[in-house]
Amino acid sequence: MGYKVAVIGATGNVGREMLNILEEREFPADEVIPIASRRSVGREVSYGDARLKCRDLETFDFSGVDFALMSAGSAISKEWSPRIGATGCVVIDNSSCWRYDPDVPLVVPEVNPDAIAGFTKKNIIANPNCSTAQLVVVLKPLHDAAKIKRVVCSTYQSVSGAGKEAMDELWNQTKGIFVTDPPSPEKFTKQIAFNVIPHIDIFLDDGSTKEEWKMMAETKKILDPKIKLTATCVRVPVFVGHAEAVNIEFETPFSADEARDVLRDAPGVLVVDKREDGGYVTPVECVGDFATFVSRIRDDQTVDNGLTLWCVSDNLRKGAALNTIQIAETMIERGLLAKKAA
């Protein structure tokens, strides 16, 4: 007997990707139920070769469900995750709602799988921000090898991180420019086609954005509270795939060659680092893959024990859908969740 899995927000970018990955990875599910808002009830979504009809979140009974994979935004998660958790169903939430709650584990399975055990306090597990997820997968093995002191990260984040409307806006603006139809920003604060925007989420009092704050706070919670991190998060005219230029300062000497060897053996990481034209991975090339790719590993000559690298990952996969499913898989592997009776 397998597990019963509900995917909440099944009609969105991440929800659809969750359904794809559940099927691709042959997750041990006897039943997968797509759930959406009332206006999407009856709408069909794909699950492998099957077509599944969406059910209504407000009327669905979660008492017989093992996992609820939540990708419906913070407001819905704030209202529904505790209610679903109270039925005994484990909620794995992709929004920012529960990430900073001390009673909710924030998990990237390659980095801090032991933290999952804390789910029993609320029956909720949080998935980190997509830009944080790929970063900590890379930082973890390096931190284990040579203790990271400080990280400076510049992100190049695709529009899919802002949802389907953002992807539509990039597409429509790009087409419009070629037919002399002036772009009209709606989802973004400025034109996104053929442009970059150094602004993701709201501004905070210190001049940083909430996206930048998330990377700092989440890295500390997942990896090590002593790590100092500063980020500049930039939206770029790419449909899928986040990239990051990462500068790392270690407490002890650690060379680029040593880092390359460590990362080659790290779970979830693929090193493609040839010092030649095209010897690196770009966002377009990582789409559809589960790995975080690392390239351009080199010593930083401007600081003691410094290293610089480039990493890219499919944000809809590793940054969101895949990580959520890996958490569920880890719970099963560790025997943390018994299957409910049919």
TrEMBL record:
A Pfam family reported for this protein in Swiss-Prot or TrEMBL: Semialdhyde_dhC
Location of the Semialdehyde dehydrogenase NAD-binding domain: 4-119
GO biological process: 'de novo' L-methionine biosynthetic process; diaminopimelate biosynthetic process; isoleucine biosynthetic process; lysine biosynthetic process via diaminopimelate; threonine biosynthetic process
Protein residues bound to substrate: Q157, R235
EC primary class: oxidoreductase
Pathway of action: Amino-acid biosynthesis; L-lysine biosynthesis via DAP pathway; (S)-tetrahydrodipicolinate from L-aspartate: step 2/4; Amino-acid biosynthesis; L-threonine biosynthesis; L-threonine from L-aspartate: step 2/5; Amino-acid biosynthesis; L-methionine biosynthesis via de novo pathway; L-homoserine from L-aspartate: step 2/3
Residues at the catalytic site: C130 (acyl-thioester intermediate), H242 (proton acceptor)
Keywords of this entry: Amino-acid biosynthesis, Diaminopimelate biosynthesis, Lysine biosynthesis, Methionine biosynthesis, NADP, Oxidoreductase, Threonine biosynthesis
Record text on subunit structure and interactions: Homodimer.
Family: Belongs to the aspartate-semialdehyde dehydrogenase family.
Protein name: Aspartate-semialdehyde dehydrogenase
Classification of source organism: Bacteria, Pseudomonadati, Pseudomonadota, Alphaproteobacteria, Hyphomicrobiales
